[in-house]
Write a structure and sequence with these properties.
This protein is of the alpha/beta class and 379 residues long. It is 30% helix and 20% strand. Helix 5 links the parallel strand 4 and strand 5. Helix 10 crosses helix 11.
Length: 379
């Protein structure tokens, strides 16, 4: 459903707020996912994930908080890290998270996503350093198997592409997409095995409530057909910013064969003010949850997907925050450790004055120069 007017549990005032917000940021959900909401609880986490909030129209953040457009090489393809390419192959999701960092893709005037990925495939063929391709968007698994399979087949035909990943929240939003499509199972059987190589589905479970019996069956179905499943999630205020909730999520996923991969700091995307947890508090929540969890749960990393790379938070002292380039757009910074004075109000890397030493010094020209220099350094 794409209209808040179809949700009877909302009050007239809530419907009016929903209409106003969805004029700016699109709304979409489905009966299955709506059924997970406890409407008697005003702080229900699933409601927070999917229902419009009046704070979304506040002035805060920017649409492309990680400056992904700087890394777009051909329409629909981003190449930020030397061995990894992103194919934005779809601009629809099973539902829309209110805190989505790519909400710009769902606006009428956006042209970053293409339905014809042939230019992206050609770019990948011409760049043998690319061994890892992530299908994203939008959600690739909302596409019909008949549209998704040619993309998978095209990637499997490129010898230097060894890893294919699919970023998807469909196991949480609509697990019946997985359990009800034998053609999808056959595609995974064909292209995800010991001979061809494995396909990874990067699941997006944000809260334990999403791990229903149906979702668990969907995960088992993926695994039964050769898919490797892992999970990544942002930390979201009112959803999983609790050590106990996050620990339960980590443990339950690990028990299901879906080890945690990343917990991301919520990007400072336009409309995301009420969803963002201050960075240092978010790290403490993450560290406490991880300390309580099982061994596999400790595989997760807490990081920011920043313009300059994945910046991992690796520790706090009384006075300092310790950061590390887990992945760096400029390979000369790979693994570099940064120690900044703490700022308890910081929500993002750029909120630390010392980060200016790692940023392009002036907007457009310097950003482009930064990317050109980084590319040369990687040659």
């Amino acid at each position: 459903m794409t209209s808040v007017d179809k949700i009877p549990q909302l009050s007239p005032d809530e419907r009016e707020i929903g209409r106003q917000v969805s004029e700016k940021f699109v709304f979409r959900t489905n009966d299955y996912y709506q059924g997970l909401i406890n409407w008697d609880d005003p702080h229900d986490p699933i409601r927070k994930i999917v229902m419009p909030d009046s704070t979304e129209i506040n002035e805060w953040g920017q649409l492309d908080a990680s400056h992904e457009e700087l890394y777009t090489k051909v329409p629909g393809l981003e190449h930020k890290y030397s061995d990894t390419a992103l194919l934005l192959c779809n601009d629809v999701c099973g539902a829309y998270c209110r805190f989505c960092f790519r909400k710009r893709l769902f606006m009428d005037d956006n042209d970053e996503v293409v339905r014809d990925v042939s230019a992206g495939l050609e770019y990948i063929r011409a760049h043998p350093e690319i061994s890892n391709v992530l299908l994203t968007g939008g959600d690739p698994l909302i596409m019909s198997t008949s549209k998704l399979e040619p993309i998978i087949a095209g990637l499997r035909a490129i010898p230097h592409v060894r890893i294919i990943r699919i970023g998807s929240k469909m196991p949480a939003f609509n697990p019946f997409r997985i359990t009800g499509d034998p053609k999808l199972w056959a595609m995974f059987d064909k292209y995800s095995n010991a001979t061809a190589g494995r396909i990874y589905v990067m699941c997006h479970f944000n809260h334990p409530v999403e791990l229903t019996a149906e979702a668990r069956e969907g995960l088992e179905c993926l695994q039964r057909h050769g898919v490797v499943t892992v999970n990544q999630s942002p930390m979201i205020a009112g959803v999983n910013d609790s050590p106990d909730v996050l620990r339960e999520l980590f443990d339950e996923l690990s028990y299901l064969g879906v080890p945690p991969y990343y917990i991301f700091q919520c990007r400072p995307t336009e409309g995301n003010e009420s969803y963002s947890v201050p960075l240092e508090r978010a790290y403490r929540i993450f560290a406490e949850a991880q300390a309580q969890g099982s061994g596999l749960a400790k595989r997760a990393r807490f990081s920011m997907s920043h313009m300059t790379g994945k910046v991992e938070v690796i520790g706090l002292t009384d006075d300092c925050i310790l950061l590390k380039y887990h992945r760096a757009a400029d390979p000369r910074r790979q693994g570099e450790i940064m120690i900044f004075p703490r700022r308890r109000e910081a929500h993002w890397f750029d909120d630390y004055p010392e980060s200016r030493n790692y940023l392009p010094k002036m907007p457009a020209q310097s950003e482009r120069a930064f990317l050109e220099e980084a590319a040369l350094a990687g040659d």
